[in-house]
Amino acid sequence: MTSSTSSTIDLPAPTDEPAVVVRDRRTRRRRAIGVTGALGGLTIVLFVLTMMIGETRLGPLEVVASVLGFSDSPSTDFVVRTLRLPTAVTAAAVGAALGISGLCFQKLLSNPLASPDFVGITSGASFFAITAIVLLGLSGFAVSVAALAGALLTASLIYLLAWRDGITGYRFVLIGIGVSQLFISLVGWVIVQAELFDAREAMTWLVGSAGRAGSTELPVLLGALAVLVPAVLLLSRPLGVLELGDDAARGLGVGVETARRLVLLVAVVLVALATAVAGPMAFVALIAGPIAVRLLRGTGSGLPAAALVGACVVLAADLVARQLLPVSLPTGVVTGAVGAPYLIWLLIHVNSEGRGG
Amino acid sequence: MTDPNADASAPLTREAQGHDLRAEDLTLGYDETDIVSHLDVQLPPGRITVIVGANACGKSTLLRGLARLLPARSGSVRLDGRDVTSLRSIEVAKVVGLLPQTPVAPDGITVADLVGRGRYPHQGWFRQWKPEDDQAVQAALEATGTAELAERRIAELSGGQRQRVWVAMALAQDTDLLLLDEPTTYLDINHQVELLDLLTDLNRSHGKTIVLVLHDLNLACRYADHIIAMKAGRIVREGAPSDVIDADVVTDVFGLDCDVVPDPVSGTPMVVPRGRHHVRAMTPDPELATS
């Protein structure tokens, strides 16, 4: 306590200009803008880079000109706009959706392991998609719809099972892991039933690839991002209060259940659409948020930064998967190869801090 | 008292002596068990009220009910005569602040950022950060002696500093009423006294109504204007500490055989437990003396 006299306490109108408080707030804001801007720049670089490299090599200016519609070369336009742009846009959009979704889950459930990959939403989407491919003989857009329905149904199921006078992160994660295992074994069972061709198709779907997006799914994802990203930014303030725990959030006047359901809904729809478009892209939702938060050192909500980190990760993984390896692989193999060591590190690190639960 | 046609969004009117928070026929509980049953209580405006009682007597539950963290099973919590469930929670949060028992500090957050989140009821989802928010944060930091920690990260602070920062967050909320659930639990005795002195400062200089749950009876007696002794979900006795706390009440509420003597510093009641060992035979027991 600075002083025992009551005169120093002057709550409604302090005499001094609150210099330190303003300085801290500006430092935080500068950092948030700087980091987010740098990530935005990196995303654009990777976005252009993925379109430069391939069987026909193109210069950055050719790519940019063609994307913006200034190119007068029909062959460049064909390579860029028809062949490469859809994959690049898919990679960026899927990455952004997974990044936001993952960080929403992690913040909401106060657990760095609470990514939609682990709490069963992705595996629910997978089970529905695989069932559609193998048992119903569907393909293309219908599989995406099945994946979307699967993700939404699984999220509702986990929510209902975890409900007990409210939702705690701990119960949600544990029940989610159980539900995840259930769907993973069901996926195995469905694949065992399948004809060889269908099984191959199903396994390809299960790896996740940015190059797969059909012309119908991608606009849906982009439209959803256009609506849901502003919604998430709007929700970031109540989310910042929810992070302090339910009691503190209620004390501050946040409608905890409503806010939580809205954030969950947005996060689930984003991961569902991303999975519907590109399949289950392993680990992106898990790693994007913590990387963004680490770069920001706890300033701001981290949601825009997480979206950009997600986009960078998927763009880079796509680049590596298609071009830098001797054989062309689906994107999900690369994100999985990068994500798994991170998960192991996270488990060791988190448990040493005693926050594993 | 209650106007049935009251508009839920109309601002709460402050009585001359402060906002009035009370419970009427309030029943609270978890799962199948009622913890607090049919309880009536009024928190005196502008005073410091301390709720005491044995573990599991329902004191924290009552505080949580008053802070509308728990829904009433019967009866109601009334703020300025209106049922809190009929009010928008963000409007209540401008009048009633709360420091819960175990709030969570997000990773890497700075002190000023955390305290700034206390401004939520004044901002809602849309409003931009304003200079008045900076001033409220600064005032809260100064009042709690944490201004020099503003740019530090919560994780780097000691337990005592951290607790003062949480109090600062509740102060930044700028409410007339402040409810604190065992705010001294993780503090050593020096920080306990500092925190209670701080709350007394806030009460005296701003007329804030302060309601605390405390474990330490002697500190409760010293700092409370009004003390509420609870047992098994009911109020055993309430009033000024010197009227409420005597050996019989302590024995009834805590099951503790004790003496109550005047606190040498403040003159308020001080509970000296007897226990089974180390009891000095100061005044010889007449029975022992004759045998």
From TrEMBL, chain A:
Topology with respect to the bilayer: Multi-pass membrane protein
Keyword annotations: Cell membrane, Membrane, Transmembrane, Transmembrane helix, Transport
Protein location = Cell membrane
Q: Which domain of life is it from?
A: Bacteria
* Family of the protein in this entry: Belongs to the binding-protein-dependent transport system permease family. FecCD subfamily.
Task: Please name the InterPro entries in this protein's record.
Answer: ABC_BtuC-like (IPR037294), ABC_transptr_permease_BtuC (IPR000522)
**Keyword Membrane in annotation:** yes
The name this protein carries in UniProt is Iron chelate uptake ABC transporter family permease subunit
Q: Give the stretches traversing the membrane.
A: 32-53, 85-105, 117-135, 141-160, 172-192, 220-242, 262-289, 301-320, 327-348
Any Pfam family matching the protein: FecCD
UniProtKB/TrEMBL annotation, chain B:
Tell me which stretches of the chain form a coiled coil: none
Q: Does the keyword Transport apply?
A: yes
CDD domains recorded:
ABC_Iron-Siderophores_B12_Hemin (cd03214)
Q: Kindly state which keywords UniProt assigns to this record, in alphabetical order.
A: ATP-binding, Cell membrane, Ion transport, Iron, Iron transport, Membrane, Nucleotide-binding, Transport
Gene Ontology molecular function terms on file:
ATP binding
Topological relation to the membrane, as annotated: Peripheral membrane protein
Q: InterPro entries given for it?
A: AAA+_ATPase, ABC_transporter-like_ATP-bd, ABC_transporter-like_CS, P-loop_NTPase, Siderophore_ABC-ATPase
Localized where? Answer: Cell membrane
Q: Tell me the ranges covered by the ABC transporter domain, including all copies.
A: 21-257
Instruction: Give the highest taxon in the source lineage.
Output: Bacteria
Record protein name field: ABC transporter ATP-binding protein
The organism is Aeromicrobium halocynthiae
